């Protein structure tokens, strides 16, 4: 009898592998093969001279990587990317935690909560390119923001937002914050609603304040979701492209202080320099993996303490 049941279980399990076949095929064709091709191209000199004459492919080993490090641009663009990500992520996580705690508090008895949850998620549905075009028009020299500031006599002449490092980086960070804080709020809200209410009741009976309950109960239980949000946000930040690309017309102005790693990569791909593009892609892959591992290990260490 046991053999019959075991045979039926094995037979049913086979269907799981059949359902995995489409995913495996798509992953191999669109993920694994391009990844292997990128790593392969990184060891070759392969580009189009003047956009017409093909040079290579010629095997040159690690020369592309050495050239990237000697150029000195990689570190600068990495700092640009991380600064704009941090400027957007810190207010994003703070606002999302506050909103999630507000929405999940049953004592407030908020009316129209589903409506407000939908509204704050809407910016996430707007294309980043459309967002960038909107902000480009709003903060241009002749845009409504400058007109309003001059009418209020704050400025005598139009302020060039995209010509100053602080304001240009701030705009990119602010747009990323607006696009993603709704998604983060929904994730954190789902985690808070899954917490057993008896824990809060027991804490209140013991005389704990709302602040103590938040930092001693809510945050520790939300740690796995916070790790997920931080790592996915970090990966998205390292892949920041469309907003600064459109906002600065691909130049990373002023003086390349808003040039990100992916914008730097795009310049090599646009010029059809497959060798340098492949090398930069490999370095970006390694940087993303290292930073994600650091975040994960740091949170894991804090959890064990």
Describe this structure in words.
The structure is a single chain. With 305 residues, the chain is mostly helical. It contains 12 helices and 2 strands; from the N terminus they run H-E-E-H-H-H-H-H-H-H-H-H-H-H. It has helices at 2-41, 63-71, 73-104, 113-121, 128-138, 144-151, 165-193, 197-205, 210-238, 242-247, 261-270, 274-304, and strands at residues 44-49, 53-59. A two-stranded antiparallel sheet has the order 1-2. Strand 1 and strand 2 form a beta hairpin. Helix 1 (2-41) packs across helix 12, helix 3 crosses helix 7 and helix 4 runs antiparallel to helix 7 (165-193). It is globular and about 75 Å long.
Record keyword descriptors for this entry.
globular, single chain, mainly alpha, 12 helices, 305 residues
- Relative strand content: under 5%
Biggest sheet character: 2 strands, antiparallel
Number of strands: 2
Unreliably modeled segments: none
Mean pLDDT: 85
Q: Estimate the global geometry from the Cα principal axes.
A: globular
Strand order of the largest sheet: 1-2
- Secondary-structure-based class equals mainly alpha
Number of helices: 12
Please estimate the helix content. Answer: over 70%
H/E element order? HEEHHHHHHHHHHH
Distance between the termini: 50 Å
Rg from C-alpha positions? 25 Å
Topology:
Layout: H1 2-41, E1 44-49, E2 53-59, H2 63-71, H3 73-104, H4 113-121, H5 128-138, H6 144-151, H7 165-193, H8 197-205, H9 210-238, H10 242-247, H11 261-270, H12 274-304
Antiparallel strand pairs: 1-2
Helix pairs in contact: 1-12, 3-7, 3-9, 4-7, 5-7, 7-9, 9-12, 11-12
């Amino acid at each position: 009898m046991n053999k019959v049941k075991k045979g039926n279980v094995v037979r049913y399990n086979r269907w799981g592998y059949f359902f995995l076949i489409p995913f495996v095929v798509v992953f191999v064709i669109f993920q694994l093969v391009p990844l292997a091709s990128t790593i392969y191209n990184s060891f070759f000199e392969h580009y189009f001279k003047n956009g017409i004459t093909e040079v290579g492919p010629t095997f040159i080993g690690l020369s592309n990587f050495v050239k990237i490090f000697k150029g000195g641009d990689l570190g600068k663009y990495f700092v640009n990317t991380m600064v704009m990500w941090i400027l957007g992520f810190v207010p994003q996580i703070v606002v999302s935690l506050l909103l999630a705690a507000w929405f999940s508090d049953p004592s407030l008895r908020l009316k129209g909560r589903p409506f407000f949850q939908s509204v704050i998620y809407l910016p996430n549905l707007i294309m980043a390119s459309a967002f960038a075009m909107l902000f480009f028009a709003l903060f241009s020299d002749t845009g409504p923001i400058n007109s309003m500031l001059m009418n209020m006599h704050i400025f005598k002449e139009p302020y060039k937002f995209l010509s100053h490092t602080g304001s240009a980086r701030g705009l990119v960070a602010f747009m990323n914050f607006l696009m993603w804080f709704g998604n983060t709020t929904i994730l954190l809200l789902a985690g808070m609603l899954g917490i057993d209410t008896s824990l809060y009741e027991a804490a209140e009976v013991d005389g704990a304040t709302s602040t103590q309950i938040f930092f001693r109960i809510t945050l520790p239980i939300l740690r796995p979701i916070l790790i997920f949000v931080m790592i996915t946000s970090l990966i998205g930040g390292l892949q920041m492209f469309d907003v600064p690309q459109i906002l600065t017309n691909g130049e990373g102005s002023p003086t390349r202080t808003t040039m990100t790693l992916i914008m730097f990569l795009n310049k090599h791909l646009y010029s059809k320099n497959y060798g340098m593009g492949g090398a930069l892609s490999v370095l970006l892959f390694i940087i993303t993996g290292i930073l994600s591992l650091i975040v994960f290990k740091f949170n894991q260490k804090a959890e064990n303490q």
